[in-house]
Specification:
By secondary structure, this protein is mainly alpha-helical. It contains 15 helices and five strands. The radius of gyration is 20 Å and the shape is globular.
Length: 344
């Protein structure tokens, strides 16, 4: 299945939107700003490079200091990944070529093939919340009925996959270092080639950095940054759709607008975390229109009272999401494994 969600505002409506002119509202914020885009690249890449070099010079002075710097560098790497993400949607720069070039370059330092990831992420946008079309760019979700009917081996594997240690500590390292090195079985020739080209570019990057800084220095610094960035990055993606009152419906019931506004969280973060995460907390707006660059998401959210009626997910409340495991179709809520005690 190949879905193009470059401009979701052109998708056909399955029911009357509220407000009726929401497509006109979001279009006002879809125009990229070259000045804002260039400034974001500068204030993200500049500090990241500076912190990387500073970590190299502090590694023999104080490893605790180096580790502390790696956490800060990781936050800038997350911000760079949001730029990569926007480039993939074609929303960051006005120029398609600029999006591709910047996206590819950030893909090298995040070990992520630009075109292949862009395709997978587009499928995610087109199928998010659809129970009959799960599995592309999503965290594995089973319904209560599916879990109860599954064989023991499948249930065990699912429990392991939803364990917080696996999800936010082990999986992120494997995701960017191993998983992204291989194309999806559904990928076409162009996307497969993009994975191969990125693998070559990553090897060149590793060799080049090793020649400059030494392999082991590069390895440990990169691992420290990647470990923190991967964990926080996966958590950010996870909580955007994995919360109690999220949205999952069958194909017949599925609605684009509802999936965007109720199946994507409004993650109300402190200002500093909102900055580092590139406003991705306004995820309901992003799913409503992926053509809105991250630097316009907040303004769009505040432009229409209707957009502000979606439930807020605060940083404190979001931790509850770690205990939610299964989708209960009857209550239409994400529930924990404890819920199953009442089903036996």
């Amino acid at each position: 299945m190949r879905i193009n969600t470059t401009d979701p505002t052109t998708l056909p409506e399955k029911k009357e939107a509220q407000p009726e002119n929401w497509r006109q509202i979001v279009r006002k914020y879809q125009k990229p700003s070259t000045a804002k885009a260039l400034w974001q690249v500068t204030n993200s890449a500049g500090p990241y490079v500076a912190l990387w070099v500073l970590m190299y010079y502090t590694r023999h002075v104080s490893w605790p200091l180096t580790i502390a710097l790696s956490s800060l560098a990781a936050m800038f790497l997350i911000r760079l990944f949001i730029i990569f993400h926007d480039c993939g949607h074609g929303s960051f720069f006005k120029s398609r070529k600029a999006n591709q070039v910047v996206g590819f370059l950030i893909g090298i330092i995040t070990f992520t093939p630009y075109r292949h990831w862009t395709w997978q992420h587009a499928v995610h946008h087109g199928t998010s919340g659809n129970l009959d079309d799960r599995g592309s760019g999503d965290v594995w979700v089973m319904t209560v009925k599916e879990y109860l009917a599954a064989p023991r081996k499948t249930r065990l594997l699912y429990k392991i996959s939803r364990n917080p240690i696996i999800l936010f500590i082990i999986a992120p390292v494997g995701l960017f270092s191993i998983y992204q090195r291989f194309p999806d079985s559904k990928a076409n020739k162009r996307e497969r080639i993009s994975v191969q080209l990125m693998n070559i570019a990553v090897v060149a990057y590793v060799v080049g950095m090793s020649l400059i800084f030494g392999f082991w220095s590069f390895f440990w610094i990169q691992l420290a940054i990647g470990f923190v960035a991967g964990g926080f990055g996966v958590w950010g993606f996870y909580v955007q759709h994995q919360f109690e009152d999220t949205y999952w419906r069958t194909e017949e019931e599925w609605n684009y607008e509802s999936a965007a506004l109720t199946g994507s969280s409004f993650y109300k973060l402190p200002a500093i975390l909102n900055w580092f995460s590139g406003n991705i907390g306004y995820h309901h707006i992003h799913h409503l229109s992926s053509r809105i660059p991250n630097y316009h998401l907040k303004a769009c959210h505040e432009a229409e009272p209707y957009f502000q009626t979606v439930p807020e997910l605060t940083l404190f409340k979001s931790f509850k999401s770690m205990g939610l495991r299964l989708w209960d179709e009857e209550s239409q809520k994400l529930v924990g494994f404890g819920f199953l005690r009442n089903q036996k």
